[in-house]
Amino acid sequence: MRRLIRRIKRLSITALVIIIGIMGIKTIAFTSRQVNIASVEALPVEDGVADRLAGAIQFPTLSTSTTVDTAALLGFGAFLQQQFPMVDSLLERRVINRLSYVYKWPGLNPKLPSILLMAHQDVVPVEESAGSEWAFPPFSGEIAEGFIWGRGALDDKSSLLAIIEAVERLLKEGYAPQRTIYLAFGHDDEVGGLNGAQQIAAYFKREGIQFEYVLDEGTMVLEKPLAGLNQPLAMIGIAEKGYVTLSVSVQLEEAGHSSMPPSQTAIGILSQALARLQDNPFPAHINGATDLFFDYVGPEMTPLFKVLFANRWLTGGLIKQQLSSDPAANAIIRTTSAPTIISGGIKENVLPATATARVNFRILPGDNIESVLAYVRKVIQDQRVSVEVWKKDEAMNPSSVSGVNTFGFEAIQRTTQEIFPEAIVAPALMIGATDSRHYTEVAANIYRFMPVQLTHNDLSRYHGINECISLDNYKRMIRFYRQLILNSCK
Question: pTM for the complete prediction?
Answer without folding.
Answer: 0.92
